[in-house]
Design goal:
Strand content: 5-15%
Number of helices: 29
Oligomer: single chain
Strand order of the largest sheet: 3-2-1-4-5-11-10-6-7-9
Largest sheet: 10 strands, mixed
Radius of gyration: 33 Å
Helix content: 40-55%
Distance between the termini: 91 Å
Length: about 800
């Protein structure tokens, strides 16, 4: 009997759900549930393997999903091991797989609607984004129709394709917003003009096409039922009105509720909405998408995105697996018609990209940026596969099996081409070469003090504000603050990406942004100039965003947040950001301060009034002393500097400066050189702070680790903030004996790790690492400390991996250490 005939039936036999067990002679793969578990395992492992394989080329996940389905189908596994394919994917299991895949797709469309966040997007749509979106929708239909007509006219009759131009236009008109967002994340192009324009335009196109898609499906003709389209359209309008009415009066009341009952209510309502639209003759995903669009923004929506994303990502590949079981790529080009369709698709791709590039050039974009915008708008994803599947199953469809395979496989090729074109045409701005040491010590008193402060939540904002309020800012040397809001974007993130894109560096919606609120009052009353930035990226590349922005803004100091976990979620997030901090410390273009927020909850009106500085010696401690000097000049801030020395130096503590001042041409080696520079900086600090009653300097002598710990504990009760260097290369090992156990957080160094331990009172800590102008060389034994104009270098140390590594610092024509002494404060 021919497939598709109305009398075709398939007998599955006596199918059981649970197996009796292998020891009772029952084959577990003959039961539904064990087979489903095995299928899920095989599909997931194959999918993850392909994802890792194509990670260097940044191939979208939907492409690896399709590749997985092809490899597990007749194309690969079915050709090489047909018996294994029949055992792994028997006919009796395809109903279960299809049902589970449809369920995953249902909630995927719901999440897509939630992430689109219609309420905020409609307020932020710009004219240029709307015009580019319309051009991106219209051009594929126009170019596709012209190219298909020309191809069928010019080629021989045997090569003419029977595909309708509507399918070609629809194939390139719909941009996959989630895939586009993932591409922008992976290629780090959110801050580029074409990246922002592509995201805005894709959002507009997605909203427009969602409406058109609903109308087209509802208005389709049904043979024998002439009034069916009218009923479908009427019912769809009533459904949309009811859903958005429910959103306004019912969902708005629970928008910030994350209780189990609220989440269960939404899950059940999504399934009910899908069933209602299916009864109406509209696809189930349409009902879920509309319900997602009606979801108000809030904690409940954020909870759904977080809870459902990973589950849906696990189930959706099963739908692709069922599609791959019906496809054999060997038959894709069995006839010459396939090459004609391939040529038409290529012309349509180029036509849309060029058309969008020309339209974007009307809004002062370069043609290359406009062309890349058009390329991004051709991103393909799950929506395209759903539309292709619906078209292939339609009774009046002119989409043959060969054309379906070409279009589906074209999704993989298309996304790969997009990635390659971005790499080829987009040249990221080269990082600024470090021609000078950018440290707090090198900031002149008549130049702005540029700081880059990073935030991954509003919890750290008040602590940073308290630190800035305790730091001197004058009209001659104002603080120019770049406030960088870091948002972790998963590979399926859409909402945050689009929202940040539209509000990037703008002053809109200040009343909703706690970071902007915190700094706005400070900017108006003090010599602080604030510029806001937002960056979305994965944890693995977040450090690149920070260091790149620090180089672009010419920052001398980066403040990195650091929090001890208080919950499972905070612990997971804290681990990721601690790894980001470690990467920053090894690749920073300027000095870094890791700010640990502990102690009482602070408000933006509070400033750190009592500050303690622990000075053991070394470049990092000197940088901490330079930052403390700026705080000591601020009225109302008390700074107590304690230099910790071994008891063996007690008899030498009365030596005069003339006794250790270097003579031009004199050579000082190793640790002695570091100690000389330390003494110079301490002496300069004392002269700079002379006469200030709020600043004190004292030397404490200790002989062992317990005495050092006791000294620090005695100071903890009287201070709100401790400033310490991350690494002390010249520290006497005797005074830290027994302290090696405090090595849980290497990014904080020994003293920072000690201060954040539970054994110490709760105080905030600023751990400072001085930036060095690295120039590795072989001569590490002798360095000139003369005041001549020959080049100079001084040693510094790095213990980011638990070991002390020598790092060479080459100075400029003017000796680097001389610059530290005379212009450090």
């Amino acid at each position: 009997m021919e497939p598709g005939s109305p009398l075709e039936t398939t007998c599955f036999g006596n199918v059981t759900v649970i197996s009796s067990g292998l020891w009772l002679g029952d084959n577990p793969l003959k039961s539904t549930f064990p087979l489903l578990c095995l299928q899920l395992l095989v599909v997931t492992l194959c999918n993850r393997a392909l994802h890792c394989l194509f990670k260097p080329v940044k191939l979208a996940k939907v492409s690896t999903d399709i590749l997985t389905s092809l490899l597990l189908g007749p194309t690969a596994l079915g050709r090489w091991a047909p018996a294994m394919t029949l055992e792994l994917f028997p006919e009796s299991s395809k109903v279960v797989l299809s049902t589970l895949g449809q369920l995953g797709m249902l909630y995927w469309f719901f999440l897509m609607g939630v992430q689109l966040n219609v309420g905020s997007q409609l307020k932020r749509i710009e004219k240029k984004a709307m015009v580019v979106a319309v051009a991106g929708i219209v051009s594929p239909f126009l170019v596709g129709h012209l190219s298909l007509s020309a191809a069928n006219t010019l080629v021989p009759e045997s090569m003419r394709t029977d595909i309708h131009a509507l399918y070609v236009g629809m194939y390139y008109a719909v941009p996959a917003l989630s895939v586009l967002a993932n591409t922008v994340i992976q290629h780090k192009i959110l801050e580029t003009p074409f990246g922002r324009l592509a995201l805005s335009s894709a959002t507009c196109a997605q909203l427009l096409l969602s409406i058109v898609f609903q109308i087209v499906i509802s208005a389709r003709r049904t043979p024998g039922y002439p009034s069916a389209p009218l009923w479908r359209i009427t019912f769809s309008c009533i459904y949309i009105a009811l859903v958005f009415g429910l959103s306004r009066f019912a969902l708005a009341r629970i928008r910030n509720s994350t209780s189990e009952s609220s989440i269960s209510f939404i899950l059940i309502t999504v399934a009910f909405a899908a069933a209602v639209t299916e009864v109406n003759g509209v696809h189930t995903t349409t009902g879920a998408l509309i319900f997602g669009l009606a979801m108000p923004n809030g904690l409940l929506a954020a909870a759904f995105i977080k809870k459902l994303e990973d589950v849906v990502a696990l189930i959706v590949p099963l739908m692709f697996t069922m599609t791959g079981q019906r496809m054999d790529l060997a038959e894709m080009f069995t006839g010459p018609q396939g090459w004609t369709l391939l040529g038409v698709l290529l012309v349509t791709f180029l036509g849309k990209s060029i058309a969008v590039g020309l339209v974007a050039s009307l809004f002062n974009y370069t043609f290359v940026d406009g062309y890349l915008t058009g390329v991004l708008l051709t991103s393909k994803g799950l929506v395209d596969t759903v539309m292709l599947g619906l078209s292939a199953r339609a009774k009046a469809s002119r989409l043959g099996a060969q054309s379906f395979m070409i279009l589906l496989f074209g999704i993989i090729v298309n996304n790969l081409v997009i990635s390659l074109l971005i790499k080829l045409l987009h040249r990221s701005a080269a990082s600024t070469a470090n021609t000078s040491c950018r440290t707090v010590q090198h900031v002149r008193s008549d130049t702005p003090f540029r700081i880059l402060a990073c935030f991954h939540g509003h919890q750290m904002v008040t602590t940073v504000v308290s630190l800035l309020k305790a730091t001197q800012a004058t009209p001659k040397s104002p603080i120019k603050l770049s406030a960088l809001h870091l948002i972790h974007a998963s590979t399926r993130c859409t909402t945050l990406f689009v929202d940040a894109n539209n509000s990037l560096n703008s002053d809109e919606d200040d009343h909703n942004d706690p970071i902007r609120i915190a700094f706005k009052s400070q900017q108006s009353t003090r010599n602080i100039i604030v510029e806001h930035f937002t960056r979305l990226s994965s944890y693995s590349t977040m450090d690149q965003d920070i260091t790149k922005l620090a180089a672009e803004t010419d920052s001398a100091f980066i403040i990195v947040p650091w929090q001890q976990h208080g919950s499972d979620t905070a612990e997971s997030s804290g681990k990721h950001f601690r790894s980001v901090a470690l990467k920053i410390l090894t690749s920073t273009p300027c000095s870094v301060g890791i700010l640990v927020s502990r102690g009482l909850v602070r408000t933006c009106t509070d400033a750190f009034r009592h500050v303690a500085v622990l000075f053991f010696g070394g470049p990092d401690d000197r940088e901490a002393l330079a930052f403390a000097a700026r705080m000591g000049k601020q009225e109302g801030t008390t700074v107590n500097v304690v230099r910790v020395l071994p008891s063996s130096q007690l008899l030498k503590s009365d030596r005069m400066a003339e006794q250790w001042m270097p003579i031009p041409g004199m050579y000082v080696d190793g640790d002695d050189r570091e100690k000389v520079v330390d003494d110079y900086c301490i002496g300069h600090f004392q002269m700079e702070m002379a006469g200030k009653k709020s600043v004190s300097y004292i030397e404490k002598f200790v002989s062992c680790g317990p005495e050092t710990v006791a000294l620090i504990q005695s100071m903890s009760q009287d201070h709100e903030l401790f400033i310490v260097g991350r690494c002390q290369p010249t520290i006497n090992l005797g005074i830290i004996s027994g302290m090696e156990e405090w090595h849980e957080f290497p990014e904080l160094g020994l003293m920072g790790d000690l201060l954040v331990s539970p054994d110490f009172p709760v105080v905030s800590v600023l751990v400072v690492q001085q930036h060095v102008w690295r120039k590795y060389g072989s001569d590490t034994s002798v360095r000139s400390l003369g005041r001549g104009k020959q080049s100079n270098a001084m040693g510094a140390w790095d213990s980011s991996h638990g070991n002390l590594h020598r790092r060479q610092v080459a100075g400029q024509k003017d000796p680097g250490w001389q610059w530290n002494l005379h212009l450090g404060f």
